Amino acid sequence: MFKYTDMTLTCNQCGKEFIFSEDEQEFYKTKGFTPPHRCKDCRSTRRQMLTATCSKCGNPFVEGAPIYCAACQVNAQLDFEIKAQNLQSIIDETAGKLAALESEKAHTMELLQQKELQVLELEHRLKTAYTEIEKASRLNANLDWLGPALNSLNEKVSALENNQNNLVEALVQIVESKEEPKKVTGLADVVRGLFRNNHRYPAQTG
User: Fold this and answer.
1) ∠ CA 116-120-122 to the nearest 5 degrees?
2) N or C: which end of the chain has fewer CB within 10 A?
3) What are the tens digits of pLDDT across the range 146-165?
4) Nearest to 12 by CA among 53, 46, 57
């Protein structure tokens, strides 16, 4: 028959050594339990925790959840408040950055709208410039055509002036050949003056 002997084990919770007696080993063996990992005090505290309920709501404690003494509870509360304050500071800082980004976004949108208006104005000016260039091109083409026409017209005017002068001389000769010398001379001067005056008036009015 197997003979049990006392065993010294270490508690996983408090770290203290405890005796796992012969009777306990035999009892654990008959129940099919594994050797304990906690001492009797820690096992007793654990059982009390499992059967204890919350003083506020009456619900049982969750297994494995931390349970603090009064001093540790105060420290835990302080740690929680510090973390909450840090978190609130981060939230406030983030909100400030978001507000700055929104302001910058609004300013950027305003600048973009101004640039769009400037682009539209430049496009309008460009279209106007193209229109003026087209007008100038057509005027230049008309001037190119008008130059030779004016030269031709000037040549015709010069020819008409020559013909007029020749006609005047011819009329003067005819008058001189058919009138008396004195009358012929006076009449010839009148004819010359008449044609010269008629030839001079258009040049003055033009």
Assistant:
1) 115
2) N
3) 778 788 888 888 888 888 88
4) 46
